[in-house]
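On to our target:
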Amino acid sequence: MLRVVACIDGSQASSAICDYAAWASHRMETPLLLLHVLDEERYPADPNLTGNIGLGSREKLLEELAELDQKRSKLALEHGHHMLDEAEQRVRQAGVTDIVKRQRHGDLTESLLALESQTRLLVMGLHGESSSEREVHIGSQLETVIRSVNRPILLVPDDYAAPKSAMLAFDGSATAFKGIELLAGTPVFRDMPLHLVMIGPDTSDRWEQLKRAEKMLNGLGIDVTLAIRAGDVEKALHEYQEEHDIDVLVMGAYGHSRIRQFLVGSTTTTMLQTAQKPLVILR
């Protein structure tokens, strides 16, 4: 069974993650899975003391440190259960009834890949548990998840506001047309205004690509607006979003190789760093 998977991590965005996941669950008529992954590096289940043989009087100290690690892991596990219980209560108040809770101990990306076949949409916070108000950069875990999990990902800010409009950053690529197919096949954005926006030269070829995409959405009750804007991709998209007061930005992820991204930078990563509103990443 496919589910909306809400990844709860104890960050400031956890409440918003629950609210957006409940919203998506309603719109998609899809059950909800609440997931908490306990980082194995921070909270090892079995502390490894191999290599510390023959330390004499320090052996007792090592044993005490191992016991402390085990206690920390146990407390973190219990805290995770409490977070999941609170998340369940919140989404039930939002009207979701088909809910599954799951807690895993290990790597976040590996845990999400194990659930990929059951995932219709993944909901995560834009900034993780370790981020602070001064550190709004994305973490390596989030970037790894986006590169690894082949499911749409809804990344949300710390505060919830029910989406009423959306825009797709469209570039005419295969990924962009795949995004159109996904939008056409999901009820998430049905009956709300949708803007298809291209950044670059205003040419007849680009308008043809936009109109082709628009035809794919015909008959779905979607009010589509087409636009082409010049300028830097990240800046032009944000300016268009603010100008039209659009709630959700949808875009494809990482269209170039890792080497090219290292040389010229990644639009996806920049958008993640600067996003103030929900962002849907398509792979």
Q: What stands out?
A: The chain is about 40% helix and 20% strand. Residues 196 and 226 are 5 Å apart (CA to CA).
